[in-house]
UniProtKB/TrEMBL annotation:
It comes from Boudabousia marimammalium. This is tRNA (Adenosine(37)-N6)-threonylcarbamoyltransferase complex dimerization subunit type 1 TsaB. NCBIfam families: T6A_YeaZ. GO terms for biological process: tRNA threonylcarbamoyladenosine modification. InterPro entries: ATPase_NBD (IPR043129), Gcp-like_dom (IPR000905), T6A_TsaB (IPR022496).
Length: 225
């Protein structure tokens, strides 16, 4: 049996324990500035382990969101995931947090495509145009974006896809086609990795942090292919 410990700290702290597609336990803290303080206790809680109990054997795969997100919070999740994987011998995989958000949103759309949006601060959003691959996986179309909400909304409208996620909710007035109140479900990370492992048992998914900031990332203009 494969048991996944899923972690994401791109916005607050989210943890879930998933076995064979069933969410055994989950926990979430919306506090965006106290990831390190909350995360260890949350992991022990979902694993059913007290402060002094061992985590060895509670999971055999760790999946962590690698952003995009602010540096401090993202680092807390990535370091925790790496340490846990090394200490327990669990396999370690990283996913874009926008992939996880997009997979969470796809259950609410019939088209199979979505523009996943998270808050990038500075009046900008991180975004990714994503398409479903089967019932569990997801694929990026184009590049990851960081830009004002109005620019991302123009790209989404040109592509004919709905926007979803906290970034779209925060700037709701910019998006003419927006799914209501879709949050990142960290347990969706287990679905994505499970599907990819079936397709490729030798799969490697690194845990390098994904930071997006202009001028390193450039927005395509609406209509540009």
């Amino acid at each position: 049996m494969t048991k996944f410990l899923c972690i994401d700290t791109s916005a607050g702290s989210a943890v879930a324990l998933v076995e064979d597609g069933e969410v055994l336990a989950r926990d979430y803290s919306a506090d965006p500035r106290a990831h390190a303080e909350h995360l260890a206790g949350m992991i022990r809680k979902v694993c059913g382990v007290n402060d002094n109990g061992p985590l060895l054997g509670r999971f055999n795969v760790v999946v962590v969101g690698r952003g995009p997100a602010p540096y401090t919070g993202l680092r807390a999740g990535l370091i925790t995931a790496r340490v846990l994987a090394k200490a327990t011998g669990a396999a370690l995989y990283g996913l874009s947090s926008l992939e996880i958000l997009g997979r969470s949103a796809l259950g609410h759309v019939s088209s199979g495509e979505v523009m996943a949006c998270s808050d990038a601060r500075r009046k900008e959003v991180y975004a990714a145009h994503l398409t479903a691959v089967g019932e569990d996986d997801i694929r990026l179309l184009g590049d990851y974006l960081v830009a004002p909400a109005t620019e991302v909304a123009a790209v989404a409208e040109e592509a004919g896809v709905p926007a979803a996620g906290p970034g779209a909710d925060l700037y709701a007035e910019a998006f003419s086609h927006r799914l209501g109140e879709v949050q990142l479900d960290v347990a969706a990370a287990a679905r994505i990795v499970s599907a990819r492992l079936v397709a490729n048992p030798e799969l490697e998914l690194g845990t390098e942090p994904l930071y997006l900031r202009r001028p390193d990332v450039h927005m395509p203009k609406a209509g540009q292919k």
